[in-house]
Design brief:
With about 475 residues, this protein is of the alpha+beta class. Helices cover about 20% and strands about 30% of the residues.
């Protein structure tokens, strides 16, 4: 339980929705307390399915509130999922909370009243997240459910499949939520992957390509809310962030606790201090999700081709961002003179020259233009410092250098036990899915629970869409 809540903290999430009260364990609430994450806590009704005995329901609700109300993480009690509670239930819960915990917000319907919901749950063009009409009532609001299919990395898919064929897509996928007639509509997700990167030749190929779609989409969900912050947008919760079992959809990490493109896209979009571009018109914003103003900062933007060559003069704008706010810097239009595929690199720099955030967009005129990423190979060199233990965790610094002639297209770092070759999980990286230009170097701090590496000897792996697998 602690591991899963820490993964939410590492994504910079500030709230978890405990859907229909699915977790009733003390460890869950304690972990949220310890990690500074608020809890939206549902009761156990919804979808127009209600308990036959309201008095018994209210008695159990009272026990639940009294049992857990000492946890500072609980911020919302919600009566029902996506439906209005019956009048007697609503009145009883309101009276109960007014008596036992009057300081907290009571929400009757998880997708009604002052909040919105109802998805979308399938893949959509990431630019559409920046249009309020995409959401259920034609505006952002506080949105309680949104998500998309998320295929994990290949090794997790093989664990999902067990002794069944993991490729091609078939029965074992269908048994793990790849439901072609469900709200997840995985056919559009698969089409998005193949339109951008071509038809997959293997499970490894499909999963590698899927991670860039995962990253791009999940980052866009949160950046759309950043761009409209307090201008109709006040918050967004995922359906879902945590997988209840091995799955192919609606998750930010998999059941093995291995993170993927969705995790790191969400983490990027939720940075407390963040620089981003609005995909609908390429306006660049600086976002400050902290309680302190950001004064004297500068936003930098540069356009580059896949070889790292400049495509024009860089843009720079000084700005300040009040606490819990967003400020526009400038627009970087996708003009007809630009190559059909290129990079937009953004940096947010503090008044003292410290980089506070960086962000890379691979901009393509048509989805098929993105296929050039896989056709532009590069290579990297890995170096690792000594592994050091501090308490119950260990860490090392992995230095990655792009030794090739093209950008690394979402380079993924992972770790394995040098003795057993088993994955080291859950793994925490200071950054991941790296876009390094030729000659660039990144020093990534990688840490793990010491219990997850019995040999004490880590081996680090770098892989990506356009580079061979390299290990230390």
């Amino acid at each position: 339980m602690a591991d899963t809540v820490e993964l939410h903290r590492d994504m910079n999430f500030t709230m978890i929705r405990n859907w229909v009260g699915a977790s009733n364990r003390e460890e869950f609430f304690a972990a949220c307390d310890e990690n500074g994450i608020l809890v939206w806590n549902d009761f156990w009704a919804g979808d127009a399915i209600f308990p036959p005995d309201n008095d018994v329901f209210l008695a159990i609700a009272a026990d639940t509130v009294v049992r857990y109300r000492h946890h500072p993480s609980i911020a919302v009690w919600c009566a029902t999922n996506e439906s209005d509670p019956p009048a007697a239930m609503d009145a009883g819960l309101r009276a109960l909370l007014a008596r036992e915990q009057p300081e907290l917000w009571y929400q009757g319907n998880s997708a009604g009243g002052v909040v919105t919901g109802h998805g979308p749950y399938s893949w959509i063009d990431p630019a559409r997240y920046f249009d309020g009409d995409t959401y259920s009532i034609g505006s952002y609001g506080f949105h309680t459910e949104i998500g998309l299919p998320t295929v994990p990395v290949a090794e997790s898919m093989r664990h999902l499949a067990g002794d069944q064929p993991a490729w091609p897509i078939g029965p074992v996928w269908f048994n793990h939520d790849w439901c072609t007639r469900g709200g997840q509509n995985p056919d559009t997700y698969r089409a998005a992957i193949e339109d951008r990167f071509g038809t997959a030749s293997s499970l490894e190929d499909f999963c590698a390509k899927a991670q860039l779609v995962n990253y791009e989409s999940m980052r866009a969900i949160f950046e759309a809310y950043n761009a409209a912050l307090w201008n109709d947008a006040s918050g967004v919760l995922l359906w879902m962030s945590h997988p209840a079992h091995h799955s192919t959809v609606w998750q930010t990490y998999d059941y093995d606790l291995d993170t993927n493109g969705s995790f790191h896209g969400a983490r990027k979009g939720c940075e407390p201090l963040h620089v981003q571009a609005r995909l609908s018109d390429w306006q660049v914003h600086a976002v400050n999700q902290t309680a302190q103003p950001l004064d004297g900062a500068t936003v930098h933007a540069e356009l580059l081709d896949l070889r790292g060559r400049s495509l024009g003069a860089p843009l720079t704008a000084p700005l300040s961002v009040p606490a819990s706010s967003v400020s526009a810097a400038f627009t970087v239009p996708f003009t007809a003179a630009l190559p059909p595929l290129h990079l937009l690199r953004l940096r947010l720099v503090g008044h003292d020259g410290t980089e506070l955030s960086h962000n890379v967009y691979w901009r393509y005129r048509t989805p098929a233009d993105a296929r050039e990423l896989a056709r532009t190979p590069t290579d990297v060199d890995l170096r690792t410092g000594p592994a050091r233990r501090a308490g119950d965790r260990s860490e090392a610094v992995v230095t990655v250098r792009n030794t090739g002639r093209a950008v690394t297209a979402g380079l993924r770092l992972s770790a394995r036990d040098a003795r057993t070759d088993q994955r080291v999980l859950p793994l925490r990286c200071s950054e991941n899915y790296l876009w390094l230009l030729p000659g660039e170097t990144a020093a990534v701090t990688v840490s793990w629970p010491s219990r997850a590496l019995s040999s004490g000897r880590p081996r680090f792996v770098a892989e990506g869409l356009n580079l061979p697998r390299r290990t230390t």
